[in-house]
Amino acid sequence: MDENFSIGVDFGGTNLRIGSYGGDAELLDTIVVPTRLGDGREAVIRDMCEAIQALSKKDYGNRRLAGVGVGSPGPLELPQGILRNPPNLPGWDGFDLRKAIESGIGREITLECDANAAALAEQKWGTGKTYGVESLCMLTLGTGVGNGLILDGKIWHGSTGMGGEGGHIIVQDEGGAACGCGGTGCLEQYASATAILRMAGEIMGTDAPGSSHEVALMAGAGDPRGLQVFEKVGHALAIALTALINTLNLPLYTIGGGACEAWDLFSPVMFRELHARSYVYRLTAPDVLQPVNLEPHKTYILRAELGANAGLLGACLLPLQEKKDLPAEELLLS
Question: Can you tell me whether residue 101 is helix, strand or coil?
Fold first, then answer.
């Protein structure tokens, strides 16, 4: 039987990443273009659709296009595909994303929250595959903080598609930073790359660097102000993970996204605070935090394995996962 290929879109606030996928955890081709939010929604959709069309015309031998998947920032009302006050896409509230993309490429798409797409990829080809886990919760620390839930190998959407908005768990009740969601004190304001920059500015003033990566480098070199920023990150993650662990009681929680390059800077505080706060974690904490094999009936928090490709790979998997409920190794067989 001939293999299919799929096309995925990772719709980010900074870049659009569009890729074609032919199996395993590898991409056939990738197109990356800036997300032109300043030029309006039509420009962004046009760029996205042109890249999808370009990849659909590529010669992949006997492979046939099985479908197109799109991972978008949320909240995203599903199955309709309408954006509802997305904090990192100002001016997109009420936008019918599904209709706009399908009109632009002339075919149906599989649309999903970007964090759910990343979590799906992580379960199929990352930590889930490494440790044989069918259920996990993933936090992605990027421009914002995304949250995806995979239960028994399938995305958990909730009743309206908005399940998994852990980035808006309140981690600072009094005097919390204002969030684009309309609330204050959300995890997104204390653990995202954007938040790291803001907190660095508050602590360092004019000495603050221009990127979260540079803040991490300062902290890694022992700068006490940089270390203070990542103590705040670890503290905030512990509060959010306490809520998630006490509620879900899953075997695995993974943390991904660009800000995870600072894992060694924030995770000691995160684990210490989590042990103090979550009674479920205290009862189920493993002896070895990063083991070769997971012990049963323990709660593990691990760094995600797929890195920057998780969202795009997950988007590519979406139409295949929707088409048939098969293991990842069989998804591309027609």
Answer: helix
Asked if residue 136 lies in contact with residue 150, where contact means CB atoms within 8 angstroms, the answer is: yes
> What predicted TM-score, i.e. pTM, was given to this entire model?
0.90
For the segment 120-143, the average pLDDT, to the nearest whole number, is 95
Query: What is the per-residue pLDDT across 222-242, written as a single tens digit (0 to 9) for each?
Result: 999 999 999 999 999 999 999
User: How far is 300 from 266, CA to CA, in rounded Å?
Assistant: 16
Domains in the chain, ordered, with CATH? 4-117+309-330 (3.30.420.40), 133-304 (3.30.420.40)
- Residue 307 gets the label, from left (phi > 0), alpha (psi -120 to 50) or beta, of left
Q: What is the mean pLDDT of residues 265-269?
A: 97
Q: Is 269 helix (H, G, I), strand (E, B) or coil?
A: helix
How far is CA 28 from each of CA 58, 63, 205, 313, 331, rounded to the nearest angstrom? Answer: 10, 12, 44, 11, 16
Do β-strands 300-303 and 145-151 pair in parallel, antiparallel, or remain unpaired?
unpaired
The sign of the dihedral angle between the CA atoms of 44, 46, 50, 53 is positive
Residue for token pair 């649309």: 111
Query: Taking a C-beta distance cutoff of 8 angstroms, is the pair 9, 69 a contact?
Result: yes
Confidence band of 74 (pLDDT split at 50, 70, 90): confident
